[in-house]
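Hello,

Our lab assistant flagged a job as stuck in the queue for most of the afternoon. It eventually completed. Since we weren't sure the result was trustworthy after the delay, we are filing this so someone can double-check. Below is the sequence as submitted and the structure that was eventually returned. Let us know if re-running is recommended.
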Amino acid sequence: MASDASYDLIIIGTGPGGYVAAVRAAQLGLKTVCIEKEPRLGGVCLNVGCIPSKALLDSSEYYHLARHHFANHGVMCDGLRLDLSAMMSRKEQVVNELTANVRKLLQGNGVKIIQGTARLSGKDRVEVLSDDGKTELVAAKAILLATGSTPVQVPGLEFDGDRIVSSTEALCFSSVPKHLGIVGGGYIGLELGSVWRRLGAKVTVIEMLPKIAATLDGQIGRTLERILKKQGFEFHLKTKVSQAAVNGKTVETVLTTDKGVEKKLSFDKLLVSVGRRPLTQGLGLEEIGVEINPVTGLVLTDECLRTNIPSILAIGDLTSGPMLAHKASAEGIAAVECLAGQPGEVNYDTIPAVVYTSPEVASVGLTEEQVKERGAPYCTGTYPFAGAGRARCMGESDGFVKIIAHAKTDRILGVHIIGPRAADMIAECVLAIEFGGSSEDIARTVHGHPTFSEALQEAAMAVRKCSIYAS
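-- returned structure --
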C-alpha cells in the first residue's frame, strides 16, 4: 500500500550515522523519516557494538582492579566474587537507556520513525515490509543509506551462535569461558578478549599477519602486544585456523603457521573477528543501478556522499574508510548539509581511532611508517606516562605519547598514544591537526598539573629538540 506522505529525506538505518543525520536534517528544515528493521533504535553501535562492549570493559576493569590492585591502595576486598548476570544486566540497562534516548531525540526533532525492513523500489521510493507482513511505500526527494555492517564469516568457521561466535554473542556469554580463542588480532577481538581475560578466561589470539592491530603505528602496536602478553594474552602470529570442529562443549582446532607447522588447540568458545562487511543485502541496490565495488562490497560515493544516482546517498560502514561510529556520524551530517545546499564535508585525515584495551590506544593522522613511505622529513617526540605524576598516583604508568611532526614546518602529521585516558586525550590532537597546528602549539599550551595530558605537552617539547627549533 502506498503512503500519501512525501518527505524530503528517507534515512534507512538509525545507527550513529542515521540518527545523527536525521537530527541534522530536521534542524535544516528537511521533512525526514527514519526506517529501522530492529525493535530498538541505535544500530549495531548502541545495541551490539560500541556501547555494550564499553560497558563490559568498564565493569570487567573494576573487577580486575578489585582483585589485583585495590590492595595496593589499602582497599581490601576479601570475599570478592563475580556476579556475571548482574554485570550483563547492567550492560543491558545502559543499552536500553541509550536506545530509548535516541528514539526521544528523533521524536523531539519531529522525525518520523517507521519500523520495518526497507528495500529501494526506485531512485525516490522505498518499500517497507513490517513484521506483520504489511507493505508501505514511502517517497522522498532523497534517500540516505545508513545500514552499517555485519561480521565477516570465514569458510570453515561459520558462526553457530554457541561455540563459534561473532562479536554479538561474545557480548553475552552466560559464563566465563575457561579458554577463549579469538581469530583475528584487530580492535574488536582485543577489546572482547580483554573483557573475558579480566574475568578469568585464558585468551589465545590467532592472527595471520605478523603483528596485532596492524593499522597502528608500529611502535605503539609492539608496545600494546607486550603489555597484553604481560596481562596473560597468548598470541599466535603468522598463523591461521586451518581446521575447526565443534565437539560437544569444545571447539577443536588445528592452527597452521606460515611455515606449515601445525598445532592443535581446544577452546570453550571461538570468537571469529576478522573484520566486517557492508550490510547491503536485500536493499535492492543492484536492481536500481547503485554502483558497488565488486571486491569490497562498498557503495561508491562522491565528496558529498552521493552515489551514481544523485538522489541516493550512502554513509558510514557502507562507504570507504574506517568502520567507526564517529566517522558515520560525521558523514551523516555532511551528507544532509550538502542536500540542504550547505558546504558539508568530512576531513578524513583527522578521524581518530581508539582501541579500548587497558591501557587504551588512540591515534590520529599518519603513522611513522606512512610518513616514511611518503618520504617526508619528520621528527618524533615521545614521553612515557611513567614520568607523569598523575599516572604514577593512579598506578597507571604503562605506555607513552608519540608525536610526529614535519621536520621543516613543525606541522603535526600524527599523534599516537598508548596509556591511561588515551581515548579522551586524543581530542586535543585531532583539533591540532584540523587547524594545521605544530608541535610548538601544543608545547606552548599550558596543561593542568597533575594530569595525564602533561605527557602530551612533554612529547611536543621533545619534538622541538629535533625540528626547526633545534639549535
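-- support follow-up --
The delay was a queue issue, not a problem with the job. The result is valid. The mean pLDDT is 96. The longest helix spans residues 84-108.
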